[in-house]
Write the structure tokens for this entry.
Amino acid sequence: MSDNEKLNLALRQEISAITPNRVDDLLARLGEQQPDQQPEAKRGPRSVYRGLIAAALAVVVLGGGLFYGLRSAQRSTVILDANAPVAFTVDGFDRVRSVRLENARAVSALDAEHFTGKKLEAAVADATEQLITGNVLSANENAVLLSVQEDRDARAEKLMEAASTALTAAAEKHEIAPAVLTQTVSERVKPTAGVSLGRTALTDGTGVPSDAAVLDLLYYFSSENAVPEDTQVYGTWAETAFCSVEQAVRTASDASGGTGEAASLSWDHSRLVYVVRVPMWNGDAVYTISARTGEILSAEIPGWTTERAPGEPPEVPGVPQTPSTGSVPETSTVPEQEVDPGAVYRFFKGVVDFWDAII
Amino acid sequence: MDMWSSVIPHADETLIQRIAQGEQQALAALYERYREAVFGYALSVLRDRDLAEDALQETFLQVWSAAARYVLRGKSPVTWLLGITKNVMRTMRRKQLTLLDENAPEIPETTDRFLEVENRMVTRAVLAKLSENEREIVMLHAVAGLKHREIAAHLELPLSTVLSKYNRALKKLRTMLGDML
């Protein structure tokens, strides 16, 4: 039993123990008032009554068959995306009719045949279990995008509740508290080639890369107060997953020797980054810092540029690799580790301060 | 509400219909079935055991009066019942406010009657540490058995808000009561 289930059970038991049973008092007070009466319907002869019941039963039986057929033919789509999106097509009885694994990571982490025929809650719970076992969903990478494609509001809400409850319960068994972005998608939305339906619906028109990690999307939308319409968020991202704005500014300031201004969140392809501007004596230096690791990815320093490819080990921050303009004169040599633009800035600032002091 | 329950009356709806026809035993049966749900909900809002007991009795007195107006294929019986409880509590709070005057001693936000009872750690934690919405949501789900979307409709909140508050409330309770679980 999960901790939540234990809590709920304990609360029920405690309330049960302290709830009074004063039914006798209640019945005694009823004598003081009568229920509002509706006029009694006139009853016809018994044979007419029996005929009506028989007709009603016939309607029920015939209607039941039609009802079953119609419900069975209904289709809705529920997409669970923890960077390994799986789309469940669900019938009117909430049973999974087909499964689509929407990228290579989903194919390697999930067993599609395992879900077909199950109730949606069971399928979502199993999928969550597999994602956790495969280390796709973890305490540090705890964001999930849950999308329901269904135009009938009540049906969409019911499916969303079933899926989110199953996801949360399955994750909590592993002591993971997921952060969930939920959205209802219109049936008119079609997936873009190579992008899952949920991602298409979430990122279309926002300027945000559709292949970014769900956690980055969640952090970005929440931090920028730009959660798309028809999207809701519950839960919070893993606290250790991102470096703070303050850390990013400090990193840029330390690297440059200047004082960084407030960082803004942006995207470097599908990576979430902070962009920090540091005023220098000859213009602004711009540092691009990974929002996840806090390391400097690139620095545009007036007169110098450094850039590293993703995955490349970090150089000493702020050290230029190539001059940004012109070729190096034949007679000059610039050892790679010698020039520190931060020191240059501090030198010229010192000169200016000295000049101000003596005038 | 799905089609089947509109064609074949649910047991609770049958009870309500019998109450509407004046059957006291039907009211007693409904009381027995839902007194914990109503009391738990009232306690979560009023945070006073005496007031919650009063709300419980008043709710079922109003059920006796209003049963004839319950419409089959409308709300589910338990949400209809808890809707009555909500109105009863609203009336009780209004009466409380009109009795207050400047010279009256300040009525404490919570009374400690429930704290006098031993071994009610979870209830105490719920009532003392959660916000009003969180208390209602936890009690309606855990004790009354409402689904989150039913709670959202009852409290007139978005479903995602209910899910968020529910998860936050349980996280607070787990943090407080962790070793006891």
